[in-house]
Structures
1.
Amino acid sequence: MRFVRQNDVKGAKRVIGRGWGGVRGGIALLAVAAVMSGCGGGDAEKASEQGSSGRRDGAEAGATSGTAGPAHGQQRGARQHGARQHGQRHLDAPAARALDAYAGKVRRAHAARVAAAKRWGLAKVPLTAPAPPARKPELRTRKGFEVDGHVEDSLPPVFTTVPTRHKVVFLTIDDGAEKDPAFLRMMTDLRIPYTAFLSDYLIKEDYGYFERMRDRGVALHNHTLRHRHLPALSYAAQKREICGMQDVLEMRYGTRPTLFRPPYGSYDRDTLRAAATCGVEAVPLWNEEVFVDRWDYRESDRELRPGDIVLSHFRGPSDWKGTMPDMIRRFLNLITAEGYAVARLEDYL
């Protein structure tokens, strides 16, 4: 039986970007204002026509098309033109205020991001990821990560990088051993997206911590019940580990995940067959791993690539020489210096 094993891991495991949507919204408002002002002018002319119809003869009606005559010293039509201009200025004001309000919102959001970066000790303000693709990339199993019958049996793809040309990476955090409230505050303040792969034997100590995480928009996915080395187990045992965790996540957090990461990155054909049976659609592994004190790279050139998946763990001072916020500082400082932003993995899958 062939199985694939990744490197073992010790222990269990825009500035806000330009608001194009807002600008387009402002332009739309301006267009509506222009149309409304035209309608307003037409209504004024119609009212004038109705008010003067009983006082003019047929020749005047033909010459003026239903409008009152000009005031002394004023050219014919100037009064209506001035009224239309006044109406235009009046109706343009809400659109201008909307644009000003949007610009103010952008400035305040950026200021909050700058303040958060300073508060958490970052070298620079993290970059903002571009909008996710409307059409999701096609996911294929990385060469060398296939199992027998992978394509023929339509088994879930196994990959370490998501196809994209955007300079984004995806942060994923495994297991659930450390439950640091400061980590939740930091990620919320900085608005950094990430994905959690959880094991029940660790999270059951405090299901509420990961409920708070979920409520902040973090997707919670499957890392098995007990973090066992799956290729050493029978198909039935692997299925219990994977489907059992699906049941826990659905019961506790209301959703049945579609992503699964095998412990230690190790799997065989039975692992992927069992995962597919349990509702798993994809198996994201990783191309880099970040710790408190270092980065590890899968590629020999030790370079980040667009779409790379980065692994870390829920760990604290009992396992690391530092905290989870320390790890996030190392992660963000490096990717920001290299021109990368953090994107949400689920938005690309």
2.
Amino acid sequence: MTAAFAVLALAAAGCGETSNEASRDDSSKGPAGSSYKGKGIGLAYDIGGQGDQSFNDAAYAGYSKARKEFKIGGVDMEPGDGESSADKVQRLEQLARQGYDPVIGVGFVYAPAVEAAAKKFPDTTFGIIDDNTVKADNVADLVFHEEQGSYLAGVAAAKATKVKHVGFVGGVDIPLIHKFEAGFVQGVKSVDPKIKIEKRYLTEKPEEGGFSSPDKGQNAASGQIEAGADVIYHAAGLSGQGVIQEAGSQKKWAIGVDSDQYKQKALAKYKDHILGSAFKDVGGAVYDLTKSVVEGKPMKGEQRYDLKSGRVGFSDSNPKYREMKDVVAAVEKAEKDIIGGKVEVKIVP
């Protein structure tokens, strides 16, 4: 990882920490001819941090690509254990004060912090992923039609199951994750209304570890497999690693989320059992916002990505998936139907 910690004198866990693989911060100020005056990208991770093989890692991919392409510096920061909203505000304000632009909060939990920091630093562009409640001239709300990718996951699961029994594991019982469940269930039922669907949320609140506890994901997957499910879709961040590990160990199908989890090194042992992933291109959103700032035309307001934009979809990296021609055909048809307006995907289960 290429992030700097020398430039930030951070107080321990309360403010969060830079990546433990951090290195020097580039002094470049953007590509030749650019009027960009910022120091680079400031990226603040969500619960689970960098290395979750999913949501946060997707953000890092966009951060890394933008830094390389635009020849700018950057720092990416981990959340602290049990941190407060005030800690998040301090983190974002410190990044802005140091001259980073844009400053991006990865996850809806940053909404209050982004709102507060944006008011204090009106000349800095802030971005927040998975929240559209912050309204300010210097804030871009980077949000997705997660339910559309989840619908494709549901179609794939319904076509791949051999026992007409599938499962959904959500990290936290909140409206954002309800969208994943809603799309998945609708996709499954579009293929066969009689398919049984196991559903499980790991925790009621984010701070209880629903997005950061692989053991909870593993236990949930074990229970669903014991109940009879042979395909399990997770929307659980780092906890989803446990879902994939358990499904792979029992030679059942798992469906990943956010990133193309078939390609994640930490999950390589189980990749043959990752049917695909309902991805949302968080990295692409980070890249888009950075590009707009570097080019002097900062994005602002709600930026909603969907299947048509290519920022949401279903990955097909697993050769075993591509060999299942009937599954692939059904997913491709579903994608065309959504883009064409024939199918409207629900956002509430």
3.
Amino acid sequence: MNSVMHEQNLYREIITPVPDGVTRPLWSVMIPTYNCANYLRETLAGILAQDLGPEVMQIEVVDDHSTQDDPAAIVEELGRGRVSFYRQPENVGAIKNFNTCLQRSRGHLVHLLHGDDCVRDGFYWKMQRAFDEKAEIGAAFCRHIFIDGNSHWLFLSDLEQSESGILSNWLERIAVMNLLQPPSIVVRRDVYEKLGGFDSRICCCAEDWEMWVRIAADYPVWYDVEPLALYRFHSASLTGRCARTGQNVRDLCKIIEIIQPYLPAPIAKDLSRKSRENWALYAIKDITPQMFAVGDLSAVTTQIQEALRCSCSLNIIKELTPLVLQLGKLWLKKTVNTAARG
């Protein structure tokens, strides 16, 4: 167990404590961006509407050397000196940029809010109250709303429990399926200092999930029933790009391997098996319909292949049978049409 944890620590950046003598606000709202300046106005507006002042809240955009837009100009326009801006000297990738956000944070509570996501009025007050009521919690999160590229509401995340409070059996639940999204969660900075940064082995999809399981293995976690965070899903996002290549499922399988040592030994294998089946079903039932909708048959085929590598349970085979038949008909139709045009 210790050798496994040591190996995993090699892939986690050490988050250094804030030096003595540095003035520390309660909050650090850290906003990683990369080519998403068209959404950044909405993100910043939601934060600034709840601004508690520079003595209480650090607000900083950390840009991963964007090449298609100018987030610095948006920060200057909306922030008017209130929001600080840091630009990576070169593109370092999402994980390194997230860890840079953690390193640059000075607050006791860290909210890592991606530059295309948002929070609603009351988010910071509600999260702060959770830490005030239960000082032992390592993190607090709320229900979230999925939105599209035009900020239209799509659907709500499932309700994890009927009332706000510390979650029961949270490790066993979060180990099977990622049940939250980054804009909804706040973490104590000293938790990151103890557990390390985001794991560099995850390059494309659900890079946050491993972190939430890691935290759940060491700390109680608070849940607020009110939907106060907005998670944007759109085809241009990192999640969308990964789905087209199948890297999303490969990353999920890698995370399942990584988190198994965090789990209680008697149930670790069973939880991992359930997780593989759940993520394979996610690829089949959630991702492939989106790829069918845009006519990307190659992406559908890739998702099916990766789902089978993830799990070959009877449930997966049953779900796949009609999907494979539909895919075969569409490929045949496409082949016939191509031959006719030739």
4.
Amino acid sequence: MNVRTRSSAIIGAVCLVASLAFTTASADEPAAPRQAPKVALKEVTTAKNPSAGAAGPDGSVWIAERAGTVRVLGDQGLGDPVLDITAETTTDGERGLLGITFDKEFAHFYISFTNLEGTSTVDEFAVRDGKIQPDTRRTVLTQTQPYSNHNGGDIKFGPDGYLYIAFGDGGSGGDPHGNGQNLDTLLGKMVRIDPSGGEPYAIPSDNPFVGDPNAKGEIWAYGLRNPWRFSFDAGTGDLLIGDVGQSAWEEIDWAPANSGGGENYGWSQMEGSHPFRGGTEPANHVPPVHEYDRNGLGCSVTGGYVYRGEAIPDLQGQYVFSDYCDGTVRALQLENGEVTGVSDLGVNGGEVVSFVQGGNGELYVLDIGGTVSRIDPA
């Protein structure tokens, strides 16, 4: 398993270039892709810098706006904010409200944001009758950040019922503090905790580094640069991570549902499947299932979801993703963790900062400029 991320331009870095070349890290001769499914992007609403989203109670879709508001998508667009923390966060660099999620029972709502000091913070709220209970708010976890970029910030519950949190390497460039390979920090890691099992949380006993005096027990996987967006396949439970690259390679990493964790995605010894600045490939390095270079317009991969909706049968089982700078929506055909084809879906989502998977499996595309679109059959 292995991951890498770079600042999405929503989040800071701007990359200019011109055309997107994709290569598959695993196969010498990638299988000929099937004909791309015919899809269209239907604008369903606009928001102020939408940054993340989540499936909510009763089939609703909740949208986070980077400055600190959360609103619910309805037939008439987005409603009034159901949560507003704009006085508590900052949007300099790559900061802001970066992730939202519910537990499986929709009994608790979680937000991931950077506070006024730039510290990554995950807070929890109880939910009753589909509504956030502000007086139940509590802080679950915090992580100081040395720089304003590479915060990561995505949060999701896995099929195992535990909360996963993605942290970038701390920022700047080239991982100057060596956080990616350092197991004594949560930076550059995928974290797995049980927020309901302790105060403020419990560490699952089967986390891979539990009992290791030289490692943080919360760590699930490491060697990540900026895992800006990750997801679990609703059909298989597999984990997919879009990790933003430093300057040459964008990558997508895959881990099977039965993984015991502990994957080393290589950063900062590796950028994708390539040694970074003379780095040595770790013996336990898990290379990406897919990578593409920066010779074109792409500069910052935006991870998405394996499509499990019903509206587009030809897209079933394919991993949908994009790039913040390129905006083209693409899909990977996967077979047991191997990429067998790459499709250009023929639509462009703009400055794609995130995808949202509705409760019915349909996918939404968030353009940081404001447009919220649904992927529909053409």
